Amino acid sequence: xxxxxxxxxxxxxxxxxxxxxxxxxxxxxxxxxxxxxxxxxxxxxxxxxxxxxxxxxxxxxxxxxxxxxxxxxxxxxxxxxxxxxxxxxxxxxxxxxxxxxxxxxxxxxxxxxxxxxxxxxx
Amino acid sequence: xxxxxxxxxxxxxxxxxxxxxxxxxxxxxxxxxxxxxxxxxxxxxxxxxxxxxxxxxxxxxxxxxxxxxxxxxxxxxxxxxxxxxxxxxxxxxxxxxxxxxxxxxxxxxxxxxxxxxxxxxxxxxxxxxxxxxxxxxxxxxxxxxxxxxxxxxxxxxxxxxxxxxxxxxxxxxxxxxxxxxxxxxxxxxxxxxxxxxxxxxxxxxxxxxxxxxxxxxxxxxxxxxxxxxxxxxxxxxxxxxxxxxxxxxxxxxxxxxxxxxxxxxxxxxxxxxxxxxxxxxxxxxxxxxxxxxxxxxxxxxxxxxxxxxxxxxxxxxxxxxxxxxxxxxxxxxxxxxxxxxxxxxxxxxxxxxxxxxxxxxxxxxxxxxxxxxxxxxxxxxxxxxxxxxxxxxxxxxxxxxxxxxxxxxxxxxxxxxxxxxxxxxxxxxxxxxxxxxxxxxxxxxxxxxxxxxxxxxxx
Lengths: 122, 459
What we know:
The complex is a heterodimer. Chain A is α/β, with parallel strands linked by helices. In chain A, 41% of the residues lie in helices and 30% in strands. Chain A has one domain (2-112): Transcription Regulator spoIIAA. Chain A has helices spanning 23-38, 56-71, 83-91, 104-112; strands at 2-8, 11-20, 43-54, 75-79, 99-101. In chain A, strand 1 and strand 2 (11-20) form a beta hairpin. Chain B has 10 helices and 15 strands. In chain B, a hairpin with a 3-residue loop joins strand 12 and strand 13. The longest helix of chain B is centred in the first third of the chain and has 70 residues, at 13-82. The chains are: A alpha/beta, B alpha+beta. Chain A binds chain B through residues 19, 21-23, 53, 55-57, 59-61, 63-64, 67, 84, 88, 91-93, 96-97, and chain B through 336-337, 339-340, 358, 361, 364-365, 368-369, 372, 417-418, 423-430, 432-433, 436.
């Protein structure tokens, strides 16, 4: 999996591409988010449009990062997952407590509402 | 006679003549001396030139020698690079191999390849000649064999294609001999073909007999034989504990100091004596036996030995949840990074049977979860422990059975990740996803095997 880092307003934008199931990738992603938290900027968007596969450990990592960001007073937003990845995320009911946005408008709305919980699911 | 010392004119005629003669002789001597001196100088000059030329020739010879040595070293590295670094972990088979060089670059090569249809291809071949040409032809042959082994499970067909291709490229007198066996590890049957190679031996564990695996077939790659080269498949049924010994002729063509040949009969005797040992020990014993026979006489040719032990497929299947009639395929993994390739094999099979893209993606998650659990939790991440993956795909369904070497776990004791008290946990969703995506999930009593069934649903 590839991780590229950018920003969108106050949020750190991390774009994930490829398959997300290997331990090294999880460690790398956690490292990126840790840096944000340490810098007192725990607002993170994970752009997962490029993710083609996630397993249960990847879901666990989303949960962990959400807990760390919200614990630091910030927010984690999962942005535009493709249908197969979205299906797994929804089966595990992550959108019940992790913010999920499919469009730019939904993302803007999620960014404006700084509350950490999941706000919508289809 | 009185001499006049004051005038030549006054000398007697005889004296003058003598004197003139002496003068002439002196002149002639000086002239000759000058000539000799010139010749000596010329010779010295020539000697210097020849010495310089000799030094130059020696220098050039040394340079050519060092280039040749360098090229031979390169050829040796190419050949070494073509040999497997380590033999792959094979389901239901044990293997060991040894290559004995004979001080020059040889043409022996071997390979063990798992085919896309889960047969185990055992390949051994010997390129005629030595040095760079043998290494080049060996490299070309390795790629061609790998290419065709992936395409067909017929060894004769593989030889036919490789022969045709090599004949197009090799325009020298070189050729290669080969033996290719495709073992079905579930049914313990080997389909094989021979291309002029020394027939491998089988040690039958039941009665300790040693037999030869013969089959008709010409060399590969010799264009003069292209029109008459035909290969045929033969089958041998193998039993648990049987050993296969593949080798190249450098082994049996070892001579001792009295000019006697080691030969196939001595090899068969040695193999019969040590055939019930472990594969590594068999190879060591035979190499020692041949070296003992040679009594220090140097090898004339390099040789290779590859020994395969057949496992108990009944025992293997007993723990899988499949029966022999199901004819499941088997894959093996020992580490997380191997999951992707194992999964790809199963998903390709599903695609072949027309499963929808969505079904395939869903089953991929199941395979990943089952294997991750088996490797990390079942085997505790121990890289020495195996995870066996049995699978069967038909038009109706895909079934997978994943067995680890661990103590098992209580599958009823897995918390529901959807309960409010569990949903913030960062683990425990694997089995939940498997149960969600499979139409049927079952465990064995020990809890170290999980079976999942996915029915084909067409859109």
